[in-house]
Amino acid sequence: MVVTWERPTNDGGSPIQGYIVEKRDKDGVRWTRCNKRTVSELRFRVTGLLENHSYEFRVAAENAAGVGTPSAPTVYYKALDPIFKPGPPNNPKVVDSSRSTVSLTWGKPIYDGGCEIKAYIVEACNGASDEWFMCTPPTGITDTMFTVKKLLEKHEYQFRVCAINKIGVGEHADVPGKILLEEKLEAPDLDLDADMRKMINIRSASTLRLFVPVRGRPAPEVKWGKADGEIKETAQIDNTGSYASLVIENVDRFDSGKYTLTAENASGVKSVFISVRVLDSPSPPTNFMVKEITKTSVTLTWEPPLLDGGSKIKHYIVEKRESTRKVYSPITTCNRMSWKVEPLPEGGIFFFRVLAENEYGVGLPAKTLEPIKISEKPQPPGKVSVVDVTHSTVTLTWEKPEHDGGSRISHYEIELSPKDSEAWSVCASVKALETVVTNLLKGEEYQFRVVAVNDKGKSDPRQLVHSVVAKDLVIEPAVRPKVSTYSVQVGHDLKIEVPIAGHPKPTITWTKDGAALKQTTRVNVTDTKHQTTLTIKDATREDGGMYIVKPLDKINPPEMTLDSELRKGIVVRAGGSMRICIPFKGRPTPEISWAKEDGELPSKVQIETGEDYTQLSIDICDRYDAGKYILNLENSAGTKSAFVSVKVLDTPGSPLNLTVKDIKRESVTVTWEPPLIDGGARIKNYLVEKRESTRKVYSNVDNKCTKTSYRITGLTEGTIYYFRVLAENEFGVGQPAETEKAVKTSEPPLPVGKVTLTAVTKTTASLSWEKPDHDGGSRIMGYYIEMQPVGSEEWVVAATTKTCEGTVTGLSAGHEYLFRVLAFNEKGKSDPRALAAPVTAKDVTIEPGFKMAFNTYSLQHGDDLKIEIPVIGRPVPKVEWKKDGHALKETTRLNVSSTQSSTKLYIKDANKEDSGKYILTATSSVGTATEELTVIILDKPGPPTGPVKIEEVSSNYVTLSWEPPEYTGGCQINNYIVEKRDTTTTAWQIVSATIARTTIKVTNLKTGVEYQFRVSAENRYGKSSAIVSAAVDCVYEFRVIARNAAGISSRPSQTTGEITAKDEIEAPEATMDSKFKDLTVVHAGETFVIDADYTGKPMPEVVWLKDGKEIDQTTPRMEVKTTLTRTILTVKDCIRIDGGHFVLKLVNVGGVKMIPINVKVLDRPGPPDGPLEVKGSGQSIHLSENDDQERHERKADPQLGGSSH
Q: Is the pLDDT of residue 1205 over 70?
């Protein structure tokens, strides 16, 4: 539809930039935009409408300030094609007449004008008066038949019929001929019931019964026949005056075909045909031939069977038989109509056959009649000569090849090439030794060559010696009689031969005594190419006189003859062949051109033209070969054209204009138009299929859709789909039409949630809102904030944002505004959500403050701390952070940031220095607000507060005390851990790990031993470092008491004073086999042992190290065994990485002893270190690499058996 409008009366103070056209379906709710780009004209053609849907339209203007208010909508208009008066009714004819009535029938008009035919009008004209009168009521009749009554006997009448639609009365169609009303005999009539008019399907081996009622006066003579063969001799035929019957028992595939029934009496003849299809296995494939033979293969081709047995051919079975054997062996089963059989033995002789198979079984074979032997290609043809040349044709002749290679020459191919070009193309294919090459370009120069072809291949070409220029060869016509006077006796014969010349061949005329010579059985003229001959038998006196012979350059316009079959049109099954052969004449010989009505001729079309005929052929037809083929003939006398309609029975082409409309979250609507090519049969239904973009295969949605639109439901929201539609007719499913672009199942989003006014000044307003509940299946791309001054009717987009908040600027102080928010995605805009109340643009003062959710924040050591506190106040207050009375210093680890509505503190990898009290201050012109918050870092505690106090010392116990840690780790101290160490050793022993107080009595000490103690605190997050006490000695005093035999003891002696008992200290030492002093070499897979004896007081701690790391139970393949005096390191099944630097380490209070041992494991080298560096010049390339460590070591020490790479 085309929508037009006028400019708005008010352009809003800015020039109109364009217009936006919107439509709304009567069945829909929403307005949709029609134009993608802005329309600058005052009219717009709206496309993509659904037929029979009603639409209303509106238009909005757009200038620099935005889109204006749309116009008032139009009334609803229905989308329909324009309609006209109907064409003439189809094929009106008389079906019966009597002395006063005539019965007429006709078909609906081919063109109904675009709307329904309502009625028909029949008019008659009496030949006596030549005036037409209406036979039907003025409003017409709805049937396509009518009996005209009350006519006058023995009068002649003409009749005509018109169709009426709602536009009016259409063109009339005349009933052929004049009808004489008289009582007449009844012509034969055969009454076929509806089932017989259709194809009759019958299973093989069943009985076929055909029964047809017969009418006519006198009783007609009835004959049965078969269109494409003879009726079986066993058929039972029973004909009477009132019916005809045909019964064939035990039918087979050859009983398929058209059966004709003819009834004849004095009043006329009536014939009908009945189509019978016997459901059987197929007949032999047709045109079975050997296409190509090589030394090891044979290529076979064939065409579908004439009789498919009433079922689609499933596949073909190809078999071979050696000439020395009697049984065929299978080669393959294929769906194609060609197969290359390989490998075959060179020189072998084979028979081949192919059989078609359908659902009823394997059919009859098509065989090669002669054995196939690999033979040579033919020799080249003999000399090639030019016979004739015109401006568009060249006539060539050639001689047969000397040898045909053992196989008969099937045809010759003529190839042409424009001079100075190497591209040869086949221009003709003939069986004779002569051809006319047509459609040459006038004045162009061509080269020609001829190739002989047998059923084994093509010969080498024989080229015409000289090139040929396409131009008319003109020789003036002339007659050259040898003598001018001839004498003959009466009763004798006279023969006068006159040579003639001229090109093209002239027409010769003879006159006698100034009048055209009359030819009789006695006087005769014959013409050949180079002479004309006058023959007079039994001459009489009257034959004497003046004879004149002269050339007449006669021209005739082109003529062509189309037989009745071609006029009806050609119907061919897909895969079959098609031939159109049309004889023609004309002088000079017309130029011939073939064309196709709806496009170019297919490349597979073969055109063969002789002197008086032209033939167009296609070997294997498909749906695209259907249409009108037009032949044009032209010479200097005129032009002539004719067309032949070709219908190819095939599956349909692809539907047209596949479009996806009305895309929703879980559904889409697809529409299309019927295929241009219906395959020669009515489209029964369409198949609708879908495919997700992540899959490769289409799945079926509906295979019985009869409309040209379909709503696909049950789709997954937000998924990308492809769709396709295929048409189906009685021959199968046709070509698909697929959507070019992917379709995402989505729609505009739902409205946003609650809209809140967050701030307002005299020039700005800030809003926030909640995301929509649903994004429509497609990501939300942003939001529009629209505003409307109170009192105005126009909403304008004031701001666009990608987040759920935004600020509108440029407001006028004191004015009231309405605001609303819309979300939009790739499918469009949501419905708007409005702010509840209007907003007045003015500054608002609010005292500063904080919305504190918590005053205390706890986190573990090493975690990140993020504190965000909303800030209120108008104007926006300045926020300051302090800690321990000082302004907070920002570092790479500690960061403070503030917005108009909040302040944030961020501490990365928090530690105990970050714990404490933070003061937060907000200051503005209105006032000041202060808040205090506490940060607790949860960590293991600091060490207890020292020193460790020795409260009491005795010979076997010590009492210790200490103070709690200054830093508790942010939580309660669970316990303390006390450890002791004999100062002669390095090992600490736990005394107690569950001490709740800050004091302990350590008992069970050895008298005279010096001890050290250490104390650590523990909370839920770990253990602190320890504080260590000074050394404590267990001190002894001695005294002596004497006792006699009576058991009486003396007073004790004086004490010796305090004596400390101490062990002797000896530094660790070790002895080892001398072989370990040098490099120890072992082979991969062996076991090696390193052992040593050691001493030391107190007993040293033994540690084995490899490459600086301690060897323990988890080290693979290595085991350490240590006794009081000896330690052994065993390495089992060693590999390359077990080599290296080993150290035996002995430790006690007397010192540390370390003994190194170097071990080398011989193994294959490791990969070179990359990357590989390539350096090159024009003649050489140098590769270098980083050698691995092992290679260097091998090069350094030849004893290791290494070799350079």
A: no
State pLDDT tens for residues 1030-1064: 877 655 566 778 888 777 877 787 776 555 555 56
Is the bond preceding residue 218 a cis peptide, omega within 30 degrees? yes
Q: What CATH code would you report for 383-470?
A: 2.60.40.10
Cα 968 to Cα 923, 971, 978, distances in angstroms: 36, 6, 18
Answer whether 1157's CB lies under 8 Å from 1078's CB.
no
Please, which residues have CB within 8 angstroms of residue 597's CB and are 6 or more apart in sequence?
627, 628, 629, 630, 643
Q: Which H, E and C letters describe 373-407, residue by residue?
A: ECCCCCCCCCCEEEEEECCCCEEEEECCCCCCCCC
Please tell me whether residue 1195 adopts helix, strand or coil conformation. helix
Q: Which fold has domain 476-482+489-552?
A: Immunoglobulin-like (2.60.40)
The residue type at 720: I
Residue type, 764: T
Architecture per CATH, domain 89-181, reads as: Sandwich (2.60)
For 667-693, give one letter per residue: b (16+ CB within 10 A) or e: ebbbbbeebebbbbbebebbbbbbbbe
Taking CA 1184 as the corner, what is the angle to CA 1181 and CA 1189, rounded to the nearest 5 degrees?
165
Max CA distance (Å), the chain = 213
Q: What is the pLDDT of residues 313-347, one digit of tens each?
A: 999 999 999 888 889 999 999 998 898 888 888 77
Q: Are 914 and 895 in contact (CB under 8 A)?
A: no
Q: What is the mean pLDDT of the chain?
A: 85
Report which of 1068, 1076, 1065 is spatially closest to residue 1145, judged by C-alpha positions. Answer: 1068
Assess whether pLDDT exceeds 70 at residue 419: yes
pLDDT of 725 > 90? The answer is yes
DSSP H helices in 18-65: none
Residues 165 and 86: their CA atoms lie apart, in Å, by: 7
User: What burial class does residue 95 get, using C-beta atoms within 10 Å of its C-beta: 0-12 exposed, 13-18 middle, 19+ buried?
Assistant: exposed
Q: What percent of the chain has pLDDT over 70?
A: 93
Q: Do the bridges between strand 156-164 and strand 179-180 make them parallel or antiparallel, or are there none, so unpaired?
A: antiparallel
CA atoms within 13 A on the CB side of 982: 16
Number of H helices, E strands in the chain: 3, 103
Tell me whether the CATH fold assigned to 476-482+489-552 matches the one assigned to 1069-1162: yes
**Cα–Cα distance, 221 to 240 (Å, whole number):** 8
Question: Residue 232 pLDDT more than 50?
Answer: yes
Strand (E) or helix (H) holding 1175: strand 1169-1176
Q: Is 900 exposed, middle or buried (0-12, 13-18, 19+ CB in 10 A)?
A: middle
Helix (H) or strand (E) holding 1190: helix 1189-1196
CB 1193 within 8 A of CB 1200: yes
CATH superfamily of domain region 288-374: Immunoglobulins (2.60.40.10)
CB contact at 8 A, 961 and 1011: no
Match 């004489």 to its residue by tokens: 180
Q: Write down the CATH number for the domain with range 949-1034.
A: 2.60.40.10
Q: What is the CATH number of domain 1069-1162?
A: 2.60.40.10
Q: Which fold has domain 754-843?
A: Immunoglobulin-like (2.60.40)
Do 1019 and 973 contact (CB within 8 A), yes or no? yes
Name the token pair of 541: 């006196």
Does CATH place domain 556-649 in 2.60.40.10? yes
Question: Residue 1199: pLDDT above 50?
Answer: no
What φ, ψ does residue 567 adopt, rounded to 5°?
A: -65, -35
The whole-number average pLDDT for the span 652-666 is: 87
Structure tokens at 259: 């059966």
Could you tell me the residue ranges of all domains in the chain?
89-181, 186-279, 288-374, 383-470, 476-482+489-552, 556-649, 664-745, 754-843, 949-1034, 1069-1162
Question: Looking at residues 422-435, what average pLDDT do you find?
Answer: 89
